[in-house]
Structures are given as C-alpha cells and as structure tokens.
Amino acid sequence: NNNNSLSQTESLDEQLRKANTRRSILIRTTYFSNNPSTSIENK
Questions:
Q1: Which sign, positive or negative, has the C-alpha torsion 30, 34, 36, 41?
Q2: Euclidean distance between the first and final Cα of the chain, in Å?
Q3: What is the pTM of this model?
Q4: Are 8 and 1 in contact (CB under 8 A)?
Q5: Which residues, 6+ apart, have CB-to-CB distance to 36 below 8 Å?
Q6: What's the sign of the alpha-carbon dihedral 10, 12, 14, 17?
Q7: Distance between CA atoms of 41 and 2, rounded to whole angstroms?
Q8: What does the CA dihedral 15, 19, 25, 31 come to, rounded to 10 degrees?
C-alpha cells in the first residue's frame, strides 16, 4: 500500500512537471513570436 501511494504521488508530480514544462514552452514561444528581437538576442 505504501509503495502504491508513493508511485501514485510520483506519477502526479511527473504529470505536473510535464504540464509546467509545456506551459513555459508555450509562454516562451508566444512571447518570442511577439518580440522577435528578444528571441534573436537570446539565441
């Protein structure tokens, strides 16, 4: 039971991490497409 709940927690953490990564990539892409000079400077 303990192992089961632990793996469920890790799974939720992993899903959250992936969602956060996806969101930050989306925000970054949107920001850079709105500010092309910024994206050129950061490359």
A1: negative
A2: 48
A3: 0.46
A4: no
A5: none
A6: negative
A7: 49
A8: -170
Q: How far apart are CA 9 and CA 21, in angstroms?
A: 18
Supply the pLDDT for residue 38. 57
**Alpha-carbon distance 32 to 40, whole Å?**
9
Measured CA to CA in angstroms, residue 11 lies from 19, 23, 24, 33 at distances of 12, 18, 20, 33
Per-residue pLDDT of the chain (43 residues; tens, 9 = 90+): 556 666 777 788 999 999 999 999 998 888 888 877 655 555 5
Q: Where are the beta strands (DSSP E) in 1-43?
A: none
